[in-house]
Write a structure and sequence with these properties.
Number of helices: 12
Helix content: 25-40%
Number of strands: 17
Distance between the termini: 39 Å
Bound molecules: flavin-adenine dinucleotide
CATH superfamily of the largest domain: FAD/NAD(P)-binding domain
Shape: globular
Order of helices and strands: EHEEEEHEEEEEEEEEHHEEEHHHHHHHH
CATH topology of the largest domain: FAD/NAD(P)-binding domain
CATH architecture of the largest domain: 3-Layer(bba) Sandwich
CATH class of the largest domain: Alpha Beta
Strand order of the largest sheet: 3-5-4-12-13-14-11-15
Protein name: Dehydrogenase
Number of domains: 3
Radius of gyration: 20 Å
Largest sheet: 8 strands, mixed
InterPro entries: FAD/NAD-bd_sf, Geranylgeranyl_reductase
Length: 356
């Protein structure tokens, strides 16, 4: 194989391009928009054991994150420090740098027409797309999705409400959470995602902001939102191209974290295609695929609980157990030890703990 087609330059497309380059194959990338990584996103990228198959370009790092403050239904739970680390990244800068570093032939404003195996090129004409990775994101995902909306706000010279921490506010009725993420200096993102319509989410977000004296006076820059695939894996092909990233369900259903799972799945799908293995088998057997499936089981379980049971579960988990589940690590020796400290959580999670 001399070249590999990649449709979409989100995290999954960038991962596929990096793998192709590492294996001596030229990635040819078709991205519908004028820049990569434009999907609205909190841009949080945790540092996790096992890491990423590509290094994060230095100049794409906007902030270092050193933990999170957790709340449930307005009540402070705890501060998670020491085992939740990561970055807030400029996705556009990060993805473009990875694709350029991979020596990719990048076509922007080049939209793939599903069913036609062709891409319409911006200067006129079409390119034929045959063997490759399909990384077009959530519109091509066949499972359940939720919505998320966020305000980008300017903190200006005022003190930053979060600093180098994230704020996560679980909402047990919504089965979702509101969040405050720092961005580049002087800006924050305040968002919410969960099982409600975009309109209801906007109303809940408004009320969340209104209750906070440190948020309600801030200048609002932009309201944005998108869907998130939370229904677990949806492996398959689009016109013979192997789906990766959010199109294939590589998003952690409890947290909505999709950058890391998408990057890894794009990388592995491309590697398998080039090396001649079965890409679908490879994707199915990845640790991140197991993490998606485990979180999906927990989400289904929690969806069947009463609001009181959900609250009780969230409150009884230790900070370390929260991190272990949220990051999709599910390391047996850590999780079982942590759950032994919270019998209530152990009984509520029941069957799921037997699968760990
Ligand atoms: C509000 C919100 C906040 C989020 N916050 C976080 C977060 O903090 N951390 C995190 O890890 N995840 C977060 N996510 C999830 C994360 O953004 C996605 O899961 C991730 O971007 C998916 O990567 P992807 O490459 O599969 O798809 P995308 O990032 O959606 O990229 C797909 C690309 O394909 C292009 N494309 C689509 N169709 C075509 C076509 N026909 N032809 C050519 N190109 C096409 C698109 O223009 C796009 O650039 C958030 C999501 C939302 C909605």
């Amino acid at each position: 194989m001399r070249s590999l087609s990649v449709v979409g330059l989100g995290p999954a497309g960038a991962g596929a391009a990096a793998a192709a380059s590492r294996l001596g194959v030229k990635p040819v990338i078709y991205e519908a928009m004028e820049k990569p990584g434009l999907k609205p996103c909190g841009r949080g990228l945790p540092i996790v054991d096992g890491g990423l198959p590509v290094s994060i370009p230095r100049d794409s790092i906007l902030r270092r994150i050193r933990g999170a403050r957790m709340y449930v239904d307005g009540e402070f739970l705890f501060e998670m420090k020491g085992f939740l680390d990561g970055y807030i990244v400029d996705k556009t800068v990060m993805l473009e740098a990875i694709a350029v570093e991979a020596g990719g032939e990048i076509h922007y404003r080049a939209k793939y027409k599903p069913g036609s195996s062709t891409v319409r090129l911006p200067g006129g004409g079409e390119a034929r797309v045959e063997q490759g990775v399909f990384a077009g994101g959530h519109p091509y995902y066949g499972g359940a999705k939720i919505a998320a909306v966020q305000w980008i706000m300017k903190t200006g010279p005022r003190s930053d409400p979060v600093g180098d921490m994230l704020e996560i506010h679980f909402d047990t009725e919504l089965l979702g959470y509101a969040y405050i993420f720092p961005k580049e200096e002087g800006f924050i993102e305040v968002g919410i995602g969960g099982f409600a319509t975009p309109r209801e989410l906007r109303e809940r977000l408004e009320s969340f902001i209104h209750k906070r004296s440190d948020l309600r006076e801030l200048e609002r820059v932009k309201l944005e939102g998108a869907r998130i695939a939370i229904g677990g894996l949806d492996l398959g092909v689009v016109d013979g191209l192997v789906k990766a990233g959010e199109a294939a369900g590589f998003v952690l259903p409890l947290t909505g974290e999709g950058i890391r799972p998408s990057l890894i799945s794009g990388y592995e799908a491309a590697s398998a295609l080039i090396e001649g293995g079965s890409p679908l088998e490879k994707l199915r057997s990845l640790p991140i695929a197991r993490a998606v499936s485990m979180q999906k089981r927990i989400l289904d379980l929690v969806a069947g609980m009463s609001v009181e049971e959900r609250r009780s579960l969230l409150k009884s988990l230790t900070p370390r157990a929260h991190a272990e589940i949220a990051l999709g690590m599910f390391r047996k020796h850590i999780l079982l030890k942590e759950l032994a400290r919270s019998p209530r959580a152990l009984s509520l999670l029941g069957l799921v703990t037997r699968l760990i």
